[in-house]
Design brief:
By secondary structure, the protein is of the alpha/beta class. Among the domains are: 2-23 and 444-521, Golgi alpha-mannosidase II (Immunoglobulin-like), CATH 2.60.40.1180; 31-37 and 49-80 and 104-123 and 286-442, Alpha-Beta Barrel (TIM Barrel). It has helices at residues 2-29, 60-65, 67-73, 107-119, 138-143, 193-207, 240-255, 273-279, 287-295, 298-310, 330-333, 337-349, 405-408, 420-424, 430-442, 445-449; strands at 41-44, 77-80, 84-86, 94-100, 123-128, 132-134, 174-176, 182-187, 221-227, 262-265, 283-285, 317-321, 353-357, 451-454, 462-469, 472-479, 485-488, 497-500, 509-512, 517-521. An eight-stranded parallel barrel has the order 1-2-5-9-10-11-12-13.
Length: 523
């Protein structure tokens, strides 16, 4: 009987050891493929990323050259802004949904880019906004003032003779481009069956361009910009979730069930749960949690994490982020590097699917301007990625050079520490902090794929939570203040291992330095 008990104890110890090994090393043993890793998205305005052909516009061939940079950081997926032909520099308000903007490359170069992304085990998502068209689009050109046009009901009109196209977003009729031109645009009649059928064909092309069912040349999903159930409050476009979006997305899932589609809530105060239920998307954006992280306020973090993460329906996900192409750069709002690192850790460890906006990992700055130009005012938020210490060099995508106040006040400053070159080999840099946190996340199933649960503590300045996955459990503690904090956790004991942070001694009571994050494996 004693021998049996001894054997049983040995087996239990071996089992516990195996669980520990699984918790800490599974991420390294998994195959580098598109389907088996926790996602980390890199959100890129490709015109500002890397220029291959020397015209100062970031392009697809240039982006392909920089894929190793993203993989070195630990990125698994890429999200691009629209690629289709348009006069707006950001490529919303299309002239032609079916062609690639020539400044980005050809359709063949696009397909080559997609295949290379997939060859590297990464995923690709593209932004699509087909709710509006510009005046050069065939629907506008053929239908305006032509009641007999085959496209007469493809766009909305304000008069019976179709001389006056409807307004677009914010009731605008035209955009004043950064280059001084004016771009007229209008709203598409999404409830026209022919428009729905067109969208099915259009989106299906990008899912499987050669229709061979392999999807190596197709995107892994779409970002649906400015998605609304009642588009811009127009009476003609109501109940769009069930009458337009859901039929479209169901059609795409029939083609490729693995697709993951994310909708941008038009109301950034909306948690997005109705988008899951009525629209049929897989993901929405965690706007509330973004604001909570930037607040460095414990109660806001608890409230939003409980609402956005803990209550997210099974099989759905929240995209978490600190900044995007419509927001001021985080580093401009919070210039302290220590706070930027803390926010990065929360973004990457708290749950959901983290999204890093290009340049965020090196602390790029940029705020909306006030130069009286709708498009130009936003350029500082979408400025050229800074590759070099000198702020100049091959591939710099300064397409907006000498075009207005956004260039006169640009932030491409030599030797300011905010460049990939300056940070790459600096172990204490923001870039390498991101890289370390990503490595910890991807090495641990609980951090990579686990559920979120708030972890109570009595310190008003320490935010703590669990991540759980099967038999793995991790505790994350974050000091939200600029002063050292002491906190007691009943969950800690001498068998718990510190996975990330300074090598503190601890036994239920832990001291955290200002803005420090500690990660513990809980047994």
């Amino acid at each position: 009987m004693k021998l049996k008990n001894k054997a049983l104890k040995i087996n239990i110890k071996l089992f516990a050891a195996s669980i520990l090994l699984i918790c800490n090393f599974t991420g390294h043993s998994q195959k580098n493929s598109r389907g088996d890793r926790g996602e980390i998205i890199y959100h890129v305005f490709q015109r500002s990323f890397y220029d291959e052909n020397g015209d100062q516009n970031g392009d697809l061939n240039g982006f392909k050259q920089k894929l190793p940079y993203l993989q070195n950081l630990g990125i698994t997926s890429i999200l691009l802004l629209p690629l289709y032909s348009a006069d707006c520099y950001h490529n919303y308000f299309a002239n032609d949904f079916e062609t690639i903007d020539a400044e980005y490359g050809t359709m063949q170069e696009y397909i080559s880019f997609v295949k290379e992304v997939h060859n590297r085990g990464m995923k690709l998502y593209i932004d699509m906004e087909t709710q509006y068209v510009a005046e050069k689009h065939i629907w506008w050109k053929d239908a305006v003032a032509n009641i007999n046009s085959p496209y007469s009901d493809y766009i909305l009109f304000e008069d019976s003779l179709h001389f006056i196209p409807s307004t677009m977003v914010f009731d605008l009729r035209q955009l004043n481009s950064y280059d001084g031109s004016f771009i007229k645009a209008t709203t598409v009649n999404l409830l026209n069956k022919n428009v729905l059928d067109y969208n099915k064909r259009l989106f299906a092309f990008f899912v499987d361009p050669n229709k061979d069912g392999k999807f190596d040349d197709g995107v892994d999903g779409f970002r649906l910009d400015h998605a609304m159930d009642n588009l811009d409050g127009k009476p003609a476009l109501t109940d769009l979730f069930t009458r337009f979006w859901k039929p479209l997305l169901m059609h795409l899932k029939q083609l490729n069930p693995a697709l993951k589609n994310v909708a941008e809530q038009s109301d950034w105060n909306n948690y997005g749960f109705s988008y899951f239920e009525k629209m049929g998307v897989d993901r929405v954006f965690g706007f509330g949690l973004q604001r909570a992280i930037l607040s460095f306020d414990k109660q806001q973090l608890i409230k939003n994490a409980d609402s956005i993460l803990a209550k997210c329906p099974e099989g759905k996900a929240q995209i978490l982020f600190l900044e995007n192409h419509d927001m001021d750069r985080f580093a401009s709002l919070v210039p302290e590097i220590s706070k930027q690192k803390l926010a990065a850790a929360l973004l990457l460890l708290i749950g959901g699917i983290p999204s890093i906006y290009y340049g965020q990992e090196i602390g790029m700055k940029g705020k909306i301007g006030n130069w009286g130009n709708t498009d130009g005012n936003d350029i500082p938020r979408r400025a050229a990625f800074d590759w070099y210490a000198s702020a100049t060099g091959k591939g710099m995508a300064t397409w907006y050079e000498h075009t207005g106040g956004w260039w006169d006040h640009h932030l491409l400053i030599p030797n300011d520490g905010i460049s990939a070159e300056e940070q790459f080999n600096n172990d204490s840099s923001l870039f390498n902090y991101y890289k370390k946190i990503i490595h910890i996340r991807q090495s641990n199933p609980a951090l990579k794929n686990g559920s979120y649960e708030h972890a109570d503590n009595e310190n008003d300045y320490v935010f703590s939570f669990f991540r759980k996955h099967n038999n793995c459990k991790v505790l994350v503690a974050a000091n939200l203040s600029g002063e050292a904090q002491t906190v007691r956790f009943k969950y800690l004991n001498k068998n718990c291992r510190l996975l990330f942070g300074n090598n503190h001694s601890y036994n239920k009571t832990v001291q955290l330095n200002p803005y420090e994050v500690l990660v513990f494996n809980i047994e």
